Amino acid sequence: MLVAAAVCPCPPLLVPDVAAGAAPELDAARAACTDALGVLAAARPGRLVVVGPVERTGPETNPETYPGGTRGSFRGFGVDLDVRLGQGDEGSPAEQRLPYSLAVAAWLLERTGWSDAPVEGLGVGDRLVPERCARVGRDLATRSERVALLVMGDASACRTLKAPGYLDERAAPFDAEVAHALGTADMAALTTLDTGLARELKASGRAPWQVLAGAAEGADLGGSLLYEDAPYGVGYIVATWS
Fold it and tell me: Has this prediction a pTM greater than 0.85?
């Protein structure tokens, strides 16, 4: 059963080594993520599942699993920094590497010294339909008597003229709707998010948020919004469910 969840953004810029001179601009977001992970630890889960977006092309494909100990890297950003998902090594294939969303999560967990429960990862593509996301979430909630989720994903990338997706007037209302849903643990609002609009606005968190909604069915959790802003024109949200 799901006992707690934390929602965090997943830009590699969250990692100071990647952000370099711009690192202070996301200090508030990093602090909120640290607080969110504290809520997960306080719930004393038996297992932590990290859910994040992965880039996929073509039709809907199955989510991809990443065992505890899977490694990731930020070398693609010119930074000599490697991470590992959790402290254990559950036999992940040597060639398997974390997508950036889960690598950022691994960095957050290492940064806070996570050792409260075994960790595994799950990558979901943006073609995964809401009904399938909900089924995946319900399955995750059965992995242990006490499951916690760390849900990675960004809101729209269209909040300003210089945003990755340019300015779209629909972006701010979309992000406000998402922030309210995540801050109030509104599963129905998350489940009914417009998938087409989310894709047009480049909101990478849509599928992971809908996995969370499925996992939380029957858990009677309350939400709290810790951070919501749009530096660089991208919506970043931090929330907890407990």
Answer: yes
